[in-house]
Amino acid sequence: MGTEHLSPHLVRVRLGGEGFARFEDRPETDKYVKLKFVTPAPESHPVTRTYTVRRVDAESRTLDIDFVVHGEEGLAGRWAASARVGDRITLVGPGGGYLPDPNAAWYLFAGDLSAVPAIAAALEALPTTPVASRSLRSRTRTRYSTS
Ligand SMILES: Cc1cc2nc3c(=O)[nH]c(=O)nc-3n(C[C@H](O)[C@H](O)[C@H](O)COP(=O)(O)OP(=O)(O)OC[C@H]3O[C@@H](n4cnc5c(N)ncnc54)[C@H](O)[C@@H]3O)c2cc1C
Question: Is 72 near ligand 1, meaning CB less than 6 Å away?
Fold first, then answer.
């Protein structure tokens, strides 16, 4: 449905269309899908890459996936960097295993850029308290916020 460059190394791809009807959302904040790609010819064999579903919007029937782009390396990152409206991709899932415990006294999330989508989703799910401190730090400038 469209892409947004959040930083030089992070591209948000918004997926939607008729396939959304078959997407069964889950409550976990680390929910992930398996994306299907095909390696370039002449090998042309199928490969799978795992990505966090950053956000599901039931109203607009879209889901966002944030891809780290490793320059000219890799399949998934390069696909995201060059994705255009109308491109199609097959995904399987979602799976998921983590939802922040609302009764926990404190939380610590850490990860590299590829973990930021799951961390941001977890931060959004935390109960709001007057003393909550939420920050995402990056060595590169990344426009990334929880809502
Ligand atoms: C549960 C789960 C959720 C994930 N969610 C996300 C997500 O939301 N967004 C996201 O971008 N990634 C996510 N990842 C990581 C992603 O699956 C891998 O980084 C994947 O290998 C990228 O595929 P690619 O085809 O772009 O690169 P590949 O073909 O797999 O790798 C090519 C080259 O790219 C570089 N590279 C690949 N991955 C990394 C990395 N993580 N750090 C540094 N260099 C790397 C290396 O140089 C590597 O040799 C997740 C992984 C898991 C297991």
Answer: no
Which pTM value belongs to this model?
0.88
Burial of residue 52 (CB within 10 Å: 0-12, 13-18, 19+) is buried
- For residue range 94-118, what is the model confidence (pLDDT) as tens digits? 999 999 998 888 888 888 889 999 9
CATH for 2-125 (3.40.50.1980, 3.40.47.10, 2.40.30.10, 1.10.3720.10): 2.40.30.10
Report whether residue 79 contacts ligand 1, using a CB cutoff of 6 Å.
no
Question: Of 125, 121, 123, 119, nearest to 138 (Cα)?
Answer: 119
Residue 67 alpha carbon, nearest atom of ligand 1 = 11
